[in-house]
């Protein structure tokens, strides 16, 4: 039933999908990220938050020669959650995203939930080749196409610590990452993850890359780029 409701709504939302500047009326300088207090834990951040982003996108996997899935990164749109991070907005967005037809975009999901507090687009999250080693991939948070089109509004970060999602194995792990390049943030935390894990643990080597829809909150701390 949810999918049937989405079909006509997404056709209307397509005309509304648009990039928006990253501005916020909500002060998050003293916002507190909720990290588990029992083992295993992630160390708390060392500075104040600059952005709280809602990701809507996919985790992507390839099949290894051993017949198991290996994560090769994510592709996601990032929306400003600074006014809504204490609400159930993420849950509503992920419920729609998980059930939506293939042609539905993350921006359409946000527009479907549109009201006066609907979050603006911040940028994108994706993987690029490691510019330092030239080997492997590194995650990037890129806000350079939004706001004032600041070419310095991006960060590359490497995992420093992680833990299984407290909500179960269907959700991708929580992780803390440290800056390796870029001015957007000194630290990035992925928490409150929903989905993103492949349904099966085994696969056929050489099979196509699979994508699994997910959502998460990304907290960005420090950096010289502010809202």
UniProtKB/TrEMBL annotation:
Keywords: Signal. InterPro entries: DUF3455. Residues 1-17 form the signal peptide. Pfam families: DUF3455 (PF11937). Coiled coil: none annotated. It comes from the Eukaryota. PANTHER family: CONSERVED FUNGAL PROTEIN (AFU_ORTHOLOGUE AFUA_1G14230), MALATE DEHYDROGENASE (AFU_ORTHOLOGUE AFUA_2G13800). This is Malate dehydrogenase.
């Amino acid at each position: 039933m949810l999918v049937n409701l989405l079909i006509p709504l997404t056709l209307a939302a397509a005309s509304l999908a648009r990039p928006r500047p990253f501005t916020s009326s909500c002060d998050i300088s003293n916002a507190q990220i909720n990290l588990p207090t029992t083992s295993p834990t992630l160390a708390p951040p060392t500075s104040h938050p600059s952005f709280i982003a809602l990701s809507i996108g996919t985790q992507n996997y390839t099949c290894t020669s051993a017949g198991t899935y290996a994560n090769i990164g994510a592709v996601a749109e990032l929306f400003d959650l600074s006014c809504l991070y204490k609400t159930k907005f993420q849950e509503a967005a992920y419920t729609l995203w998980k059930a939506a037809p293939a042609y539905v975009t993350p921006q359409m999901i946000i527009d479907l939930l549109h009201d006066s507090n609907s979050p603006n687009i911040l940028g994108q999250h994706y993987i690029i080749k490691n510019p330092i080693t030239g080997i492997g991939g590194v995650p990037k948070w890129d806000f350079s196409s939004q706001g004032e089109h600041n070419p310095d509004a991006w960060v590359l970060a490497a995992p420093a610590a992680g833990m299984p999602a407290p909500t179960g194995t269907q959700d991708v792990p929580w992780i803390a990452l440290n800056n390796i390049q870029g001015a957007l943030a000194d630290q990035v935390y992925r928490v409150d993850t929903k989905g993103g894990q492949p349904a099966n643990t085994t696969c056929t080597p050489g099979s196509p890359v699979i994508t699994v829809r997910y959502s998460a909150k990304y907290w960005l701390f420090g950096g010289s780029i502010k809202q």
